[in-house]
Amino acid sequence: MPDQVGVREPLLTDDAVAGHAPDFEQLGAVADAVLYEGYLLYPYRRSSPKNRVRWQFGVLLPRDWVERFGPVAPGVSGSADSWYQRTECLVRAPEDDAVVRLRVRYLQMQHKQVEDADGSPVESLRTDDGVTHLSFDEAIPRETELAVPLAELLDGGRTVDVGAPAGDGDEPLPGDAGRTVRRHRELRAATTVAAEPLGPGLYRLRVRTENTGVPADPGACRNEALRDALIATHTVIGGEGVEFASLIDPPTALAERARDCRNAFTFPVLGGAPPEPAEGAGQGETGPAMLSAPIILPDHPRVAPESPGDLHDAAEIDEILTLRTMLLTDEEKAEARATDPRAARILDRVDSMPREVFERLHGAIRSLTPAGSPGSRASGRSATARAAAPASRPAAAGPGPSTAPGSGPAPGSPATQRPAWWQEGGDEGLSPTTDTVLVAGVPVGAGSPVLLRPRTRGADAQDMFLAGRSATVAGVFHDVDGSVRLAVTVDDDPAAELHGWYGRFHYFRPDEVEPLATTGTPATPGRAHDRLRRRPQR
């Protein structure tokens, strides 16, 4: 049976926007990474504990199963189980003949069961050719595309079936040792698309996808209930004669409208390449497509061109995962190959990777634009912001900063003569737990209480969720580019003490915090300082 539902066509078809084709190819690569994020994690073996608890993002289960203990509370992304997913975004369409195109994509669980020659199910079976066959939960990618004129969306919208049929199949194992049986249940789901006018040429688009099925067993455990679920559900939205506004960095005139958009269990971001810095700098962003994903992403996400293939863990670094995979033992590699065909393809790619491809994974410089120039907009920093909050060491004569409020190191001073960060001695004289930085004339350092005020534009999406929360500074850190970051723990976080012990903090610029005390309270150097310098591996 086919792996996909629906017809796969370009999201944009008219010649006027054919130039956006590379943007959609790039967005498609990101969407595929979202689809298989966490599908199978290093070391890619079935026996690994992390591969026994799977499917963490965009899981839409039958409503009766999800709400068996009460209604589900909407979330900003899809890390919590739900029975629906709602996307709201802003669309500009100056012409009446605009068309909205979207794809609803997800994985459907398929159970692979190995049976012996007697037809009895087994977890593992080794055939005479020396190959081990394992029972495991696989997945089938599903996709439904629809194109709807904007006029129809304004007149009640459209609802379409995005479910998938049930199916089964089997294949014999070598030497009549048994067989492998694959089965998947029917999935029932629907997507409703509608729009409402907000002003001349401006509309709010709503996309709601629901699991409309009935669970086989409302009291089943989650692993069993997943057989009735849409997994890694996300939506790619484009069209003809339409333009989408960023909800992270909207144009100034649309900021209030953007705040009114209500998204549940998903996080929509602009797709395609980011605009050039000269194009409307400071006026917000728009683009020809959106990706509404169950994972928090920035606008214009992309897969690094150096990455040779998916490792199903986009939060990790390709080079690290590749090195670790290379070091798996022959026995571990054999189990990974038997676990899933995708794991086998990863091992094949790693084992045959040319040296020049591997070397490209070590790192890349995207731009050498000097800090403070117009091109520095992409980094979200400015020379003014850095100069306004210089870090300082306590003066030898007593507490307090050695730098006057609002001033930086004097030319020719030891601070400006410090070796570059990659040279020996580049970090001498820096102490995260005793250094301070001036914020609104107040020296802030380890132990200082602050109020978090992340920037409204260019801030990390997760930082924005902490706006208005009180926090305690754990240390003052210097970036390799000369800027300063405050490491903080959020006061009402139940795990704040644990995060402090591990050295896992939130980081904010000095101009993104508001001091809650007139003086800083540096922590006592010692074990706390050691923890700040240590960064344990996850």
How does this structure look, described?
With 538 residues, the chain is α+β, with helices and mostly antiparallel strands. It has helices at residues 21-35, 63-66, 150-153, 222-225, 255-259, 318-326, 330-339, 341-351, 355-360, 383-387, 461-464, 496-502, 527-533, and strands at 84-92, 99-116, 121-122, 124-126, 132-134, 136-149, 158-161, 167-172, 178-184, 189-199, 202-211, 230-240, 243-245, 267-270, 286-287, 290-293, 391-392, 436-439, 442-445, 449-452, 470-478, 484-490, 506-508, 513-515. The strands form five sheets. Strands 2, 3, 6, 8, 9, 12, 14 and 16 form an eight-stranded antiparallel beta sheet that branches. A six-stranded antiparallel beta sheet has the order 7-10-11-1-13-15. It has a five-stranded antiparallel beta sheet with strand order 23-22-21-20-24, with helices on one face.
Weakly predicted, low-confidence segments = 1-19, 373-416, 522-538
Biggest sheet record: 8 strands, antiparallel
The tally of helices reads: 13
Number of strands: 24
Mean of residue pLDDT values: 82
Q: What proportion of the residues form beta strands (DSSP E)?
A: 25-35%
Helix content: 10-25%
Radius of gyration: 27 Å
How far from one another are the termini? 40 Å
The helix-and-strand class reads: alpha+beta
- Coarse morphology: globular
